[in-house]
Amino acid sequence: MSQSEPDRDGEPLKLRERAYASFTERLLAREIRPGQFVTQRELVAMTGFPLGAIRELIPRLEAEGLIKTVPQRGMQVAHVDLNLIRNAFQFRLFLEKEATAAYTRTATDEEIAEQRRRHEAIIGRAEAGGDETLIEDAEDVDRLMHEAIIDHLDNDIVSQAFRVTWLKIRLIRQYETRIQNHILIPVMQDHLKIIAAIESRDPEAAAAEMSTHINNARTRAMSY
């Protein structure tokens, strides 16, 4: 059986997914650095997965723009630059404007109310002086709202593309735009404007507020 063919339990497929998760976790933890040149065997050592799984993984990483092959130099991990920032935020804008409009039309009142509750709780904690888990919790609330809007489309292709783009956004935030205390409340207030437009069941207004929010994030990233 070849490495690319799953056995009856799907184990090779699971191995590839675990190798992918290991790579992305180490990338976000900066154990694998953006812009770094790596070999297959270095990826084996970094991720702890066998060479066969890494060889299966590389085409996916290349297709997702997380690694590229540089002639005579080897494989280079994606690095954060103005081109990555521009492309990632532009792609988000294309996806999320339409997804927000669709979510506004069909999300349940309960789903929307839960989004508002989560955001108001974060703002309340921030205004009370914050705590040691506030930033991490705020980032979770941020991600979960965007994922909920995208996943509401019930389109696996769009959801997967969004998650790859969100990974790149997280790389960008590691350098310049991670939700810190001084921008936490403005980001949450951006979200509440989106939620208010969704509550009013106005797709055009909700899409416009999402566009403003994404453009604000892009401006922060580009300014650095």
From TrEMBL:
PROSITE patterns given in the database record: HTH_GNTR
Keywords, sorted A to Z: DNA-binding, Transcription, Transcription regulation
HTH gntR-type domain location: 13-80
InterPro entries (UniProt xref): GntR_C, TF_FadR/GntR_C, Tscrpt_reg_HTH_GntR, WH-like_DNA-bd_sf, WH_DNA-bd_sf
Pfam families: FCD, GntR
GO molecular function, one term: DNA-binding transcription factor activity
Record flagged with keyword Transcription: yes
Superkingdom as given in the UniProt entry: Bacteria
Protein name as catalogued: DNA-binding transcriptional regulator, GntR family
